[in-house]
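Friendly challenge for the regulars: who can give me the structure tokens for this chain first? No prize, just bragging rights.
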Amino acid sequence: MTSPLLWIPGIAILCAHATLAQSTGSTFCTTSSNSTGFATTLSGSFGSGNGSDLHLEVSQGVPGEIAYVLVGNEATPGVIVGGNQFCLLGTATARFYRYNQAGTSSNSVGIFDASGVLQNISGTSTVGSGFDVPSTVPGGTPIAITAGSTWHFQAWHRDTPVGPGASNFSNGLSVSFTFHPTPIPGMSFIPAGTFQMGSDTQQYVPPYFAGSEASPVHDVTHSQAFWMGQREVTQFEYQTIMGVNPSFFLGSDHPVENVSWLEASAYCEILTANEIAAGNLPAGFEYRLPTEAEWEYACRAGSTTEFYTGPDLFCTDAHIQYSAHAVGSCLIDSTTPVASFPSNGFGLYDMHGNVSEWCLDNFEPYGPDALTDPFVSGGNYKVHRGGGWFSASIDSRSAFRHANGPWGTSWNVGFRVVLGRVLTP
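First reply, four minutes later:
Bragging rights claimed.
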């Protein structure tokens, strides 16, 4: 049996998720101000992870008014309807449709809040506000939104919160759709967002025993959404791709362990090649190990405590060797089948315990500056996170950091995969 890896204490991230904010599309159709004195504004961004992957937001509407989204295959010259411009007219070639079909993903109906932002009321938005455009355009015969196609959108609402009034329309938004990844089964969508990385937990004091590497706290922004494996890569999955099973504790549904960073990276490369060949990955995307910031952001899933389970981690919360909170051994001596414990808020299992997980980054101390999409390439020591079956609760914190050479192996270390933008280690 090989010995456990060298560990280096220390990192933490505080999480608050948000959608991908990179705007997309071009505007058409000049509209007039509504009774608030502002023109209603429609904007879009890719990265919802649902349907067509396009998320629409509507702002500067009349508070209290209901609105919904229109879509058309042509942007037509506008006509005045109720004092505002309607630019998705039906013609001999142009068609327009309404995304307001109750009980379906095409229900875009929402109500403007006190700030004039459209709050979705039908559950068809991952963030509450706005609308995630489905992959088909509604109608008597639904039309699929395909790569390379362009569709045109407007939002409609009335002008008074107390009774029927003049119609208002937002600007038009023309969006060309590109090919987005089709994740393999068992991946959770992780929205982009900004959070704090680092920990103010007192150093070397029980029950956390935080190290100096966890500070200083600094802001981190993920500008791109990504997908992460809900479970650690199993022995069955690893053997299917690689043709071998190096694990010490055998079990097809147990996490693969005793794999080096190099071997985990090779698995990701082959998986990527297979999915490209299957037509599921566009240029610029790959399966890879998560960056440290991606891993902890996904682990916390919005939590601000030392664990995503709260301030404590008991033997019933994760597959670990010892809990400082229960002050006792968890009486285990091997890995366990993946997803044996409750998931976190992003639907991810075993982010604490079972096996510690390789990350893409090289180990490097933190600085105080705010960062966007941090990733440390090169170097001699690769990071792994989360603690394993052989770990204590203090080693399994969302903030805790381990590292070893990329060739190192241990029965306590495995990995999970991320689908995201291409990064070079």
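Residues 362 and 382 are 4 Å apart (CA to CA). Confidence is low (pLDDT under 50) at residues 1-22. Your move, everyone else.
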